């Protein structure tokens, strides 16, 4: 029994690189495919698109039911295409359909598996669906140009024309299934998800970092009358609070029941915003002159508290004066605590 040895003229890392990237040398050029293989590839592509649209519909159904119905309609369109291709294939070549996938043929763009993500982002899904239609249209146009059999050429050309109108079909489905009130409801749902998954953890971190670090920073500043000492304490408190808050948020829940998204994404957002909230009024203490640094730090604190009040008003529907009172009172109490401790 013969044993295949590696080619000594080729470096081992080149072979490993090709293997890691999936370039095993078995990919076919599109122009080398026979009509039988082109039909088999078309069937596989339609089946894949059908399943992707089904996954889009399922992933959107809970938060965006009207858009899910649109993708259900597009899935049915792809299912119809696949049935017509299979019927013609059986008439021409028999029952066995060879497995030829997009990754087996050069020229296809690898798709990002956005349908596996949860929660699905509506704009990302619609953008990829549009790209899928353009890719399918180009495939059928090129395949029809290469086909010599009249019936195969006719079907491929018909499917290419239908892909042209498929975008119009999607628009018709959207108009039928996404009336203005449904679109408004979906926009509200998308806004709620954005607030729940991005704004809330970010705001919690910003509030904690901006308010909780006031006491140690200003206590250190007034106790030492040294800008550098206040800067060191402020940076340590800010970074430590960011790490602590980030882990606390990431470990609080996995988001499966609350809809708050991936826990580690929330943790990163909370941790970064916590650190930034403390660093903001710490940076002025890089100024060597203590009085100037204190004045700048106080101004930064006022700006931070005003920004937090505006975010609460903008995204949490809190009345602006109520938000300003709540945030301002909490910040003032912590600030006074630092002043009293530092002056004692």
Features:
344 residues, mainly alpha, Ferritin, 2 domains, 11 helices, disordered N terminus
Write a structural description.
The protein is elongated and about 95 Å long. It is built from eleven helices and no strands. The N terminus is likely disordered. The chain is mainly alpha-helical and 344 residues long. It has two domains: 152 residues, Ferritin (Up-down Bundle); 153 residues, no CATH class.
Radius of gyration (CA) equals 30 Å
Order of helices and strands: HHHHHHHHHHH
- Please provide the count of β strands: 0
Q: Which segments are poorly predicted (pLDDT under 50) over 5 or more consecutive residues? A: 1-24
**Mean pLDDT score, rounded?**
81
Oligomer: single chain
Number of domains: 2
User: Helicity range of the residues?
Assistant: over 70%
Total number of helices: 11
Query: So what's the overall shape?
Result: elongated
- Terminal Cα separation, in Å? 89 Å
Strand content: under 5%
For the sheet with most strands, the description reads: none
What structural category characterises the helix and strand content? mainly alpha
